Amino acid sequence: MPSYVIVGASRGIGYQYLKTLSKDPSNKIIAVARNVDATQSQVTSDNLANVHVVQGDLTDAESLKAAAKQASEITGGAVDHLVVNGAYLSHGTAFMKPSDYVGKEQYFLEEFNASMTANVAGVMFAINAFIPYVLKSSIKKVIVISSGHAAVDFMAVAGVAEAIPYAISKTAVNMLVAKFAIEYKKDGIVFLAMCPGVVLTQAESLDQLPPPAREIYDKMTEQFQKVDPRFKGPMSPKDSVEEQLNLIGRISMKESGSFLTRKGTKEWLAQ
Length: 271
Ligand SMILES: NC(=O)c1ccc[n+]([C@@H]2O[C@H](COP(=O)([O-])OP(=O)(O)OC[C@H]3O[C@@H](n4cnc5c(N)ncnc54)[C@H](OP(=O)(O)O)[C@@H]3O)[C@@H](O)[C@H]2O)c1
Hints:
SDR_enzymes; Rossmann fold; NAD(P)-binding protein; Sc_DH/Rdtase_CS; NADP; NAD(P)-bd_dom_sf
């Protein structure tokens, strides 16, 4: 029975992991969420089998240690796959360029600290909490959900000057993943920072988005298509997670510590 722990599983891509993985009755799935009641009631209403919801917050290391202990009791000791998905998405800074922070330095520091705390320190706390149980597995895979915002050369080509606290936190977490890969190479743990692609998590389809949000996606699609005409716009969480799981299944020590797309490449917009 392979086990999967998804940290940050209440919504979006994290919740899609629960939906996709629960289709295979041989999987044992542990959902780590800040709000257990809300996540559990969604899991119950969607009738997801083999999903166990436990409390955990990326900004609270003790909660992650407790979640890891609970997870190990559910799985019988070992954690085969750890997916650290949750992140602080700094919405207020999503469209701010470096010069927009002149006179807003305090705001920058607040958003920067929140992004770095959850998206970098929180990822380290989560991995450190679960690693004793990952070490007991024969599969030993740790995946951190990163972002194309961390692909420095790609950002320059795509002309994205915004989303600074988020982008820096995702760039930093890629380095953290590389450091973990170096430390645990001797133990055979495979670490990967993975970009899930552009995924539509706020609605079932673009048509359901309110006009301002729709306009943002349309503009982004136009901008990205100039860089890579293969880009067709945001994909569904279902399609993204299927490809992510496919990659997780096939990666090996050869790729450990890398930052790759869900297809296992560096082609950030390929679909
Ligand atoms: N969607 C995309 O196009 C895209 C592209 C590139 C990368 N990503 C990455 O993919 C991951 C998932 O994004 P998403 O689009 O699914 O976002 P989302 O729908 O906004 O979901 C974010 C998830 O993170 C959880 N979370 C936030 N802060 C947390 C904390 N302190 N502790 C534990 N969980 C926390 C949220 O839980 P609550 O319900 O408790 O808030 C929620 O489950 C993120 O790492 C994101 O950076 C997404």
